[in-house]
Amino acid sequence: MASDTISSETVIDLVEIWTDGGCKPNPGPGGWGAILRYKGAERELSGGESATTNNRMELTAAASALETLKRPCRVVVHTDSEYVKNGITRWHTGWVRRNWRNASGDPVANMDLWRRLLDAAKPHEIDWRWVRGHSGDPMNERADVLATEAREQITAH
After folding, report:
1. Catalytic option among 21, 22, 33, 47
2. Active site (annotated) includes residue 82
3. Tens of pLDDT, residues 79-135
């Protein structure tokens, strides 16, 4: 199914995205990976940082994937990060209401990346889906391989 009618005037494309990020050790060198599928074609993205955290890599994967979309789309994002899924679907409204403070009154961790992800998500209609990591989902496993390869490239230099 390549597109669905949202209203009588608007047809938007369906894009599926799988993301993963990781560090070894955490914190330490990290990598992220993302796969975008649109009309049967796939595009792989990845990157890494020498000093980061697992959560930062998970957020970067999701934001980077959404930032590649050229126009508003209907998107299904598959992530094995409960931190990303809960943050984007539940927690962020409270953070924004409290001026980017968490429930304890402390600044929200990774606020820069949360803002980046929210901006990247804005034009799209997104269904955020959590998938159990390392459970045999082929696309999640591929995103994990991309993240691991990106991390290993950082540590090889």
Report:
1. 21
2. no
3. 999 999 999 999 999 999 999 999 999 999 999 999 999 999 999 999 999 998 878
| Annotated active-site residue in 47, 78, 92, 144 | 144
Active site residue 80: yes
pLDDT by residue (tens digit) across 43-63?
Answer: 999 999 999 999 999 999 999
Exactly one of 31, 33, 49, 58 is catalytic; which is it?
58
DSSP-derived secondary structure for the chain: --EEESSSS-EEEEEEEEEEEEESSSSEEEEEEEEEEETTEEEEEEEEEEEE-HHHHHHHHHHHHHHT-SS--EEEEEES-HHHHHIIIIIHHHHHHTTSB-TTSSBPTTHHHHHHHHHHHTTSEEEEEE--TTSS-HHHHHHHHHHHHHHHHHHH-
**Catalytic residue (choose from 67, 134, 149, 152):** 134
